[in-house]
Design a protein that fits this description.
The protein has helices at residues 7-26, 33-39, 54-78, 85-93, 96-100, 107-116, 120-137, 146-169, 173-190. It has 191 residues and is an all-alpha fold. It has a single domain, classed as Tetracycline Repressor, domain 2 (Orthogonal Bundle), CATH 1.10.357.10. The radius of gyration is 18 Å and the shape is globular.
Length: 191
Amino acid sequence: MRYRPEHKAEIRQKIVKDASRRVRIEGITGAAVSAVMRDAGLTHGGFYKHFGNKDELLVESLREAFQEIANHLAHAAEQSQPETAWKAIVTTYLSLEYCEHVEYGCPLPALAPELARTDEAMKAQIFEELKKYRSRMLPFMPGQQTADKERAFFSIFSTMVGAIEIARMLPEPAMREKVLASARDLLLRSF
């Protein structure tokens, strides 16, 4: 059976999307290649037609996750007035719905401890993806100068990542919402 020339690229993108969601749910070590390939409707043996190794898939899945969340947050920001765009990002990120759907969220609250333990080569690749994420969010951050926007980005995102991590550990939606609302209120009053 002959496939269209773009078929391989489409399959690879499907694998990356599926892996991106699975990695955010199960973690780096939990997302087995066999499960990712099964999700894509392929055999484990077909993996090496698309990727050199699991690390390559991991980097691609993180790139997909960062791009997905950046697009989602940028869309929310673009629906607001320029001076309040960052507030739309905070409100979107610190929502209960976002908190409860790890598979669609930012990879940082889902994976930060695991990412910190990766080898130096992997950290360098992850850092490049984080820089792209920051660059995409920077235009929406409060502040006049680039340095002010960068400080705001790190303060805002560090607070949001931590709040999501803590909220996800709590057993009841009301408790999660209380953590998220506290962080949201603090950030919205701070800049």
